[in-house]
Specification:
Strand order of the largest sheet: 1-4-5-6
Number of strands: 6
Largest sheet: 4 strands, parallel
Structural class: alpha/beta
Shape: globular
Radius of gyration: 13 Å
Strand content: 15-25%
């Protein structure tokens, strides 16, 4: 999926790929160098950790960093937990490329984008 996302982002006229990481350790190394992107696409399942935990870590260090979580899980509870970790969005991996770009633009501009939709307590 990372290669598909990379191609999609590289082909988008208003997005540039800053870096990609296949592990939590690799992602942490980028952030330790203050290589902070405009938006993060976070997978929930990483070979060396949880996307939820990594989202929390990123947001502790860089509050307000827009994170879009992507996952194979269609169950609303996964999207809800992503929201509770501070992610601005959640999208299932089988979403269309157009929807992924729309979600990226939404979270990058400060909006929320959750598919499946979640209940947000006000």
């Amino acid at each position: 999926m990372r290669a598909v996302y990379r191609t999609l982002v590289e082909d988008a006229p208003d997005l540039d790929l800053a870096w990609s990481a296949s592990t939590a350790k690799e992602a942490r190394m980028h952030l330790e160098r203050d290589d902070v992107p405009d938006v993060v696409i976070m997978d929930l399942t990483l070979p060396d950790g949880s996307g939820y935990e990594l989202t929390r870590e990123f947001l502790q260090r860089y509050p307000g960093l827009p994170v879009l979580v992507v996952s194979a899980h269609h169950d609303r509870s996964y999207a809800q937990e992503a929201f509770e970790c501070g992610a601005r969005g959640y999208l299932v991996k089988d979403s269309s490329p157009h929807e992924l770009l729309h979600a990226l633009e939404a979270v990058r501009s400060g909006e929320s984008y959750f598919k499946p939709p979640i209940e947000v307590a006000s």
